[in-house]
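In response to reviewer comment 3 from the previous cycle, which asked for concrete evidence that the modeling workflow produces usable outputs, we include below a single protein chain processed end to end. The sequence was submitted unchanged, and the resulting structure tokens are shown without manual editing.
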Amino acid sequence: MWSDVVCPWCYVGKRRFEAALGRFEHAGDVEVTWKAFELDQNASSHPEGTQVGPDDYAQRLSAKYGTGVERGREMVSSMTETAAAEGVELRFDRAVKANTVDAHQVIHLALERGGPELQGAVKERLLRAYFTEGEAVGDRAVLQRLAVEAGLDADEVAAVLAEGRYVDDVRSEEAEASALGITGVPFFVIDRKYGVSGAQSPDVLLGALQRAWSERTPQLVMTGAGTTSADGEACGPDGCAI
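The workflow returned the following structure tokens.
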């Protein structure tokens, strides 16, 4: 899955995929790997303790889309309600602006040290930290603390960030996304054959899993699964259509 830790649709998409996986008969055979995608490689990071106004995120949206702040508030409210229906608490009033290249380095480290399970735990911790708790995930001290909470070693996290050990890997994953034609996230690639763009419904994601599985095991009979819908949303370099 390609995604970013400051992408609201990526958090919703994660929950919807988890719901689909929970209904998939062969869930135990599915291995999930998180790939890097930065919505804005040039974003600045605000430090821990940054005061965020209640309309900060709405103002960012209004500036990006050229709308008034009131329209920005409406978009924030709509996204918050959509996420709540999936069990995700979005607190845009707490969101501290962040560059996410370091977060992606930590996610990459987690995969190397603990495999997909630890990587998934780190990914979840960073999403919750940014969207629910208002943590400054672009602040290296904060990022180190969050990574340790999820199961990584504090000294190694500090060394990785100081060295920029996985920056090339992050850029390689982003280049891979570009080569695959991925312009928005979340984006799901199953068995390197099927791509699902946006935070599609659990039904759509389950259908994609079933279709991919059927082609690995031809004895399975499919009944119209694998379709897509027009209402799966995604975030791209130009923002999130919320």
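DSSP finds eight helices and six strands in the chain. We consider this sufficient to address the reviewer's concern, and the full set will be provided in the supplementary archive.
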